[in-house]
Amino acid sequence: MNEMIILSQINYLKNVVQLLGCCLEVDVPMLVYEFIPNGTLNSFLHESQLPISLETRLRICTESATALAHLHSQTVRPILHGDVKSANILLDRNYMAKVSDFGTSKFLSMDVTQFATYVQGTLGYLDPEFLQNSRLTDKSDVYSFGVVILELITRKKAVYYDGNNERICLAQQFVSAMRQNNTISIFDMDIATEDNLELLAEVSKLAEECLRPSGEERPTMTRVVQKLTGFMTRLEAIGDPNAAQEHSAEPIQIFMASPTPSHDADTAALLNTYP
């Protein structure tokens, strides 16, 4: 019921999955959504070997951010998504992003703070502030979106295993690389061309702002959209050499994402991201 109520307020947004109907005459209410043929962003990034241009990545990023910004600041009552991650961003037949899964979403109160009595969200994307004080705010969504930005520019999962079978938290790895001025080491080499490096550095800076330990220091989603729109304008001006290769590829078959690793180790990694 919560998801139906939330979606009834935002069903007009093109970058939110559309609720077509519902059935309440059963023990468990059933919701009917539009069919999204190209699956999740998680699968698009991590289960396909085909190239994805920087232009496409930034467009998907901007579309997703636009939906979240609308939830936070352009509805009658601000809405907290509560589980922002690449698996909850769907791609339609034109690979346009649609934010989905509002089962844990909440209307924000006037002080834009919610308290949770259990872990809400997905580890690897969880706001470290929430893990410490159980407070959920719009800036919790911003933190999670920062991890999605990292996935888009690195093509690595939020939590993954390296060649030594060691579990890596992408946010922690990124912060370490930023401190060493070595973010190029974790960029996806398909997009880390000489022409793109300056822009990728600015996208990385935006991700770093989203991942700051204090929610008060993070940008709003509206500010994130403004930054991403500027990046898109610049990219269009210089052109993206990988776009033609991507557009000539065969249609991509997308499958569901793999299960999330266990929580305990991820929680420790998140809490250790910053000193």
From TrEMBL:
Membrane-spanning residues: none
Q: Which GO terms describe its biological process?
A: cell surface receptor signaling pathway
The protein's GO terms of the molecular function aspect are: ATP binding; protein serine/threonine kinase activity
Which Pfam family, any one, appears in the UniProt record? PK_Tyr_Ser-Thr
InterPro entries in alphabetical order: Kinase-like_dom_sf, Prot_kinase_dom, Ser-Thr/Tyr_kinase_cat_dom, Ser/Thr_kinase_AS, WAK-like
Q: Where is the Protein kinase domain?
A: 1-232
Gene Ontology, cellular component aspect: plasma membrane
**Which keywords does the record carry?**
ATP-binding, Kinase, Nucleotide-binding, Transferase
> From which domain of life does this come?
Eukaryota
Record SUPFAM superfamilies: Protein kinase-like (PK-like)
> In this entry, which stretches build a coiled coil?
none
Q: What is this protein called?
A: Wall-associated kinase family protein
Task: Please spell out the taxonomic lineage of the organism that makes this protein.
Answer: Eukaryota, Viridiplantae, Streptophyta, Embryophyta, Tracheophyta
